[in-house]
Design brief:
Distance between the termini: 33 Å
Pfam families: Acetyltransf_8
CATH architecture of the domain at 10-138: 3-Layer(aba) Sandwich
GO molecular function, one term: N-acyltransferase activity
Protein name: Lysine N-acyltransferase MbtK
Radius of gyration: 16 Å
Shape: globular
CATH topology of the domain at 10-138: Aminopeptidase
Order of helices and strands: EEHHHEEEHEHEEH
Helix content: 25-40%
Organism: Halotia branconii CENA392
Strand order of the largest sheet: 1-2-3-4-5-6-8-7
Number of helices: 6
CATH class of the domain at 10-138: Alpha Beta
Pathway: Siderophore biosynthesis
Structural class: alpha+beta
Number of strands: 8
Length: about 190
């Protein structure tokens, strides 16, 4: 199913994929069904732990959309919605207790929700696009990731993108790999 939504906040042709990667703000009424489906995929439940019924997912999204320290996005490849993203200000997040957070630091959570898009080399271009999007805020010098330490595939993708493993941390909901992506390193890597 192709989206006709044209309110993308970021859109770019990935020349290696020859596909357009885009993001638009998540919308409760438009996205509840797809996010509910995605959160209940076996490969997503393992790490997100949000395999709930639709009412609980709706409550989760309502709270997340009202939370001023983060923005939710749907990711697209060639107009097809296929991923969910949470971009957040780390200073107002639990992660700020695990490193010296700056006011302009951003963090990132993501999932590829549609199984069709798994294993096809999309994770790195998508993550790179979101990282470029976050660095459009000129004050941001660092982007944080804290994937589940068991998710070695995603840790590898973060490293390929330019994130550097700092240390393992114990968060309230998981053992995580604290990773930093510094602006200068990222821009030099992907200029």
């Amino acid at each position: 199913m192709t989206s006709t939504t044209d309110n993308y906040v970021y859109q770019k042709l990935d020349v290696k994929l020859n596909k357009v990667i885009a993001f638009r703000p998540a919308n409760l009424s438009a996205d509840l069904d797809k996010i509910h489906k995605w959160m209940n995929q076996d490969y997503v439940i393992t790490f997100w732990k949000l395999g709930f019924n639709k009412d609980k997912i709706q409550q989760y999204l309502q709270k997340a959309l009202a939370d001023k320290h983060q923005n939710l996005y749907i990711g697209f490849i060639d107009g097809v919605p296929m991923s969910y993203w949470e971009s957040y200000w780390t200073i107002d997040d639990v992660i700020s207790g695990y490193y010296s957070a700056e006011n302009s630091d951003q963090g990132i959570h993501l999932l590829i929700g549609d199984r069709y898009f798994l294993g096809k080399g999309y994770a790195l271009p998508l993550l790179r696009a979101m990282t470029f999007f976050q660095f459009q805020y000129s004050a941001t010098q660092k982007i944080i990731a804290e994937p589940d330490i068991r998710n070695q595939k995603m840790i590898h993708v973060f490293e390929k993108c330019g994130f550097v493993f700092q240390r393992e941390i114990l968060l309230p909901d998981k053992n995580a790999a604290l990773m930093f992506c510094e602006r200068q390193h990222f821009m030099e890597k992907w200029k």
